[in-house]
Design a protein that fits this description.
Number of strands: 19
Strand content: 15-25%
Number of helices: 13
Largest sheet: 9 strands, mixed
Shape: globular
Structural class: alpha+beta
Length: 440
């Protein structure tokens, strides 16, 4: 953080300028797409324009998580009852009921409001100190969902394909080491294609010193086959029990903290990154064990990056199926995945199927972007989280399971578009945690 109030950034000349949180093309696109019922649209946009609440969770692998929870509630939260900030009653910290063991909390106040309250400032200082010790972790609420759906166990071999900056990897490490005194027998591999971001992974996860953890710096679309010793000391390709595929995306679900997106959003970005997302997902599917689970997620609302990517991969890998998410994480408000959508070219032209696409638009629009036979693949099992449902960011998550032993042909090297092939990857991709707001 620059230390400057995000609501009032400085102009180059030194004057204060309020951020323009409007984007007519964003609103027009999603209204015409119909992702939100009309009677919810005002609330949807109102939440997007409001600051994102600060959220944190208590680390659950040190044996003292419940003690930490009791300290927070008895020593700090209890002092917040009845206080006022700027003449208004201050909301109490809100537990995220869907997070296991009630170890995650949300503070429904802005950073500026927190500084006006001595009681909240005391809580802030305590949380900062405990974060340095590794007892708590700052993380956006929706970012906590994918690792929970992985259902990681200590004996699993797990790959996080696009791991930096590492908050989800940290959750996975917690899951495989949460049983006190039990050494994990599997391995957690955190990969990222950006060398500098791999250093962020080290910083984020070094507090665990887990012998079953390693970091790799590989292009996720070309992640290499890893050889391990199998029965009879024969080498075999390592297949994973769990894979997290939290892919680079346009990030329009993060408008509440990534303010630059308001002025830069374009449908062309989703069209441009769809192929990369698809190839990362296919590579992950090829590395999964039969019976294994892969969680695909983005912090985008666009079906081109979400349902379309998943649907096209399911068509190419028929041994996979989507698992229902309806009964997962009780208390989390979400909506089902989309089963029908249109595709819009950046010029504003809408298409219902690829056969309608004009020749001059076929360079940007691919057949894999359309819904087609979506109904037979149970895309309603996917999960969409919207800001107005529980005062969060926007997110998309689904669970894929590999059913058969059959080995599928990998994507040909000549067909692979790597991250490096994108003309400007920083402009075209955003991950949910890449611009995390400070803890408070």
């Amino acid at each position: 953080s620059s230390g400057i109030n995000a609501e009032w950034p400085l102009r180059p000349g030194g004057d204060w300028k309020e951020i323009d949180k409007s984007c007519p093309q964003f609103e027009k696109y999603y209204q015409e797409l119909g992702i939100i019922p009309e009677d919810e649209w005002s609330s949807f946009m109102e939440h997007f324009r409001a600051d994102l609440p600060a959220t944190f969770r208590i680390i659950n692998s040190r044996g003292d998580s419940q003690s930490m929870s009791e300290i927070l509630q008895n020593k700090y939260f209890s002092k917040l009852d009845g206080i006022t900030v700027n003449g208004k009653p201050a909301p109490l910290p809100q537990v995220l009921t869907w997070y296991p063991n009630r170890l995650a909390w949300q503070l429904n106040m802005s950073r500026a409001e927190i500084r006006y309250s001595a009681e909240y400032l005391s809580l802030h200082q305590f949380l900062v100190a405990e974060a340095e010790k590794g007892s708590v972790a700052r993380q956006e609420a929706v970012s906590m969902i994918p690792p929970l759906l992985l259902d990681a166990q200590p004996h699993h071999n797990i790959l996080d394909m696009c791991a930096a900056p590492g908050s989800k990897t940290l959750q996975i490490l917690e899951a495989v080491t949460s049983t006190e005194g039990v050494m994990p027998t599997g391995v957690v591999i955190a990969n990222d294609g950006d060398y500098k971001r791999c250093h962020m992974l080290v910083t984020q996860t070094k507090r665990f010193n887990n012998p079953a953890y390693m970091i790799t710096n590989e292009d996720a679309t070309r992640f290499p086959n890893l050889k391990v010793l199998g029965p009879g000391d024969k080498t075999q390709v390592l297949k994973f029990d769990r894979i997290l595929c939290d892919v680079p995306c346009t990030g329009d679900g993060t408008l509440r903290k990534n303010y630059a997106i308001w002025g830069k959003w374009s449908q062309a970005q989703a069209l441009g990154i769809h192929k990369l997302q698809r190839r990362i997902l296919l590579r992950g599917m090829d590395m999964l064990k039969p019976g294994g689970r892969l969680v695909y997620s983005t912090c985008s609302l666009n079906p081109i990056e979400n349902e379309a990517t998943v649907l096209s991969a399911l068509r190419d890998r028929p041994e996979f199926r989507l698992l229902p998410t309806e009964g997962c994480l009780e208390g989390l408000k979400r909506v089902e995945g989309m089963t029908n959508w249109r595709v819009m070219h950046s010029s504003g032209t809408w298409y219902n199927k690829f056969e309608e696409v004009e020749d001059r638009h076929r360079k940007a629009i691919a057949p894999t972007m359309f819904s087609g036979d979506a109904a037979v693949h149970n895309l309603q099992y996917c999960m969409r989280v919207y800001p107005h449902l529980q005062n969060t960011g926007g997110f998309f998550i689904c669970i894929l399971e590999k059913q058969q032993v059959e080995e599928r042909t990998q994507v040909k090297a000549s067909e692979i578009e790597t991250i490096a092939d994108l003309p400007d990857k920083k402009e075209k991709s955003t991950d949910c945690d890449s611009a995390l707001i400070p803890l408070l």
